[in-house]
Amino acid sequence: MNQAHQIGAKEYPQFQPGSDIAAPGLTERFDRYAAVNNRPQKVLSFEKTARGLILTAAASAKKSVLCYTHETSMYQYKPAEPTIDQLYLHLEIQSPSIFRVKMSDEKFPADPFSGIPEEGRMLIGKPEDVPFEIIEDNNYILIRTSEMTVSVEKETTRITAAHADGREFFAQKKNSFFTADIFDMAIADLNGEKSAFEAIELEHDEIIYGLGERFDSIVRNGRAVDFHNKDAIGTTGRRTYMNIPFYMSTKGYGLFLNSGAPTNWEVATGEMSALYFSVEDNRMDYFVICGPSPKDILYRYCTLTGFAALPPLWSFGLWMSRNSYTSWEIVDDIARKVRQNDIPCDVLHLDTAWFKKDWDCDLEFSGERFPNPEQHMDKLRKDGFRISLWQYNFIPPNKGNTHYEEAVRNGYLAKHADGTPYQLPETCKGSWTTDVIVDFSNPQARAWYANKIRRLIKTGAGAIKTDFGEGIPETAHYHAIDGKHFHNTYSLLYNSVVFNATKDAGGDEIVWARSGTAGSQRYPLNWGGDSQCTFEALAGTLRGALSAGMSGIPFFSHDIGGFIGLPSDELYIRWAQMGLFSSHSRCHGAGDHTHREPWAFSETACEIFRFYDKLRYSLMPYIYSEAEKCTRTGLPMMRALFLEYPSDPNVRHIDDQYLFGDSLLIAPILKPLSKTNKRRIYLPKGIWHDYFTRERIESDGRWIEREVDLKTMPIYVKDGTVLRYCKCGNTLSDGMGEIVREEYWGEQP
Questions:
Q1: Which CATH entry fits the domain spanning 2-305: 2.115.10.20, 2.60.40.1760, 1.20.120.1560, 2.60.120.10?
Q2: Nearest to 712 by CA among 535, 570, 595
Q3: For the segment 590-600, what is each residue's pLDDT rounded down to a tens digit?
Q4: Catalytic residue positions?
């Protein structure tokens, strides 16, 4: 290969990216192979600022060409004429353990989010007043704080960072090989269209976690990342509702990419020694977070993007739902049967059918099927039930829909270039493609929508479900931002409007949200969208919860039983067991006749559901106190073992069990008994107690195998834990009630 490179391999410039020769998983929105890659090559000068440095670097350029060495095809770099003379790098100290890197072909590029209020921005943390020193020698420029040293090599502009004791935790990857497998720091220019690239060194045993709600694996290495929020329609694929531009590494650092532009991530895919990413923008802006522990990284990430509010106590009770309850008579019947079947429950959810016409979202109760909503919700509240209401950010353009008419008249909608309300082109086939979109970048639209939500809360609703939000077309015109930067971040404004209106009107800090991005933790809570009714989807849902948790989302729920299809009794039981040990618990499924209420299944299923539901309610003192900790620490309620045991290499790939709070290890059953009645479980180093048998196990970090029956979901309690139990009533509306007993797990001190 080296010889072929030296003598000049045959070039094929006519190659079109997107064929099987291109690296797997690439989103070829920007043809990076045809672009000129302008790289910062050498520091020409630098100036000190109040928070760090601005470096001016000379640009050198390379271009990729397709070459053949015998039958092997690959891209190789060749020198090119730069289209940019100079590049600017800003290195800023955010805190003693966080530094910021900004790179652009402009010294001070415009902020595409300048018209978006803080509640709709990913980054809300302000820089700390941090003492630092700048040191220069012949080869390097250093910025040093009490916890880290950031270094820039003058000749190459390569950035590295080390702990105060000198141990390196972060390093840029510079491409020193002739193949174009690594796209390192550059501004790529394709006929005036620009994208920014960056590459980070990846060690051979390093593992990357995060990047949002990922249903395929908690480990990102070697897996393509579809980083475009979309309707996932299932929990077993690469599509996701919630992409979050933040990852953490087993090397002891995290990285938050502060960009809403279309983004591509490659983690040990094209090149095993590199993690690289790009944004369709002429600026790169990211924060490097020194840990060293994952708990430190998550906490410090939340200092940048915000900490979660604490949802109200009643929201931690059971939510009962179906798509959809179609009248007060059905809702009343559900409420009656919940109590008759001795199922503790706090929330009844009205999905898409509470309007005059199913899905015709006008935020008005049907006068025929849901008359007198204020009186009816007040009656249900006295019986211990909050009402949750569905809505979405699209409006059907139907005659007589006053919601639509107001939005059109006042210009509250996303638009075409000619100013008419945006609708998808006729070539887009499918459901609801004619719906128009509320433009939450418009402050008047936000105020208008918030008033409608406040009215619903004051009428008696307890919470609002913000469905959709991930399908915002980039080609539409918005009031204060371009569609390219708005697609993945739209949900922040959408959820913030509903969250804040709910809080203003009723005092409760909650929204039931589907889509999200960095900062979505500020507006809890998220659920995992439309899962299939399969064991595979149950496992994918757990992976999504754990991955979201490692991306800063502490409160996460999912549809017990699965949404698409009809679960068997066994699947329903297994999903309920895990769902009742998630931060929030909701039964929900597609179709008015595919019930998710436990009494719609077998007597055995209802009995087992009741057992775990009552166990959840009795453990509410533990659950609620752990939830409060999450709002202070950034840790998730459903916690991958890596977060708690980062030095244990055995836990790095485990995504089928989790810690529920600090002290309970949950091992949900993710396969039917027809395949196996055994469950393999990893117990990290320490003493653990089987919750049901009280068996004490002293582990040095080992796997155990145990038999399970239909009723059993293994739960292990960490030694030294104190579990407090409250009196298990039918509802949390009046509080948790008295503490009836206290259990100490372990030898009494």
A1: 2.60.40.1760
A2: 570
A3: 987 889 999 99
A4: 467, 470, 530
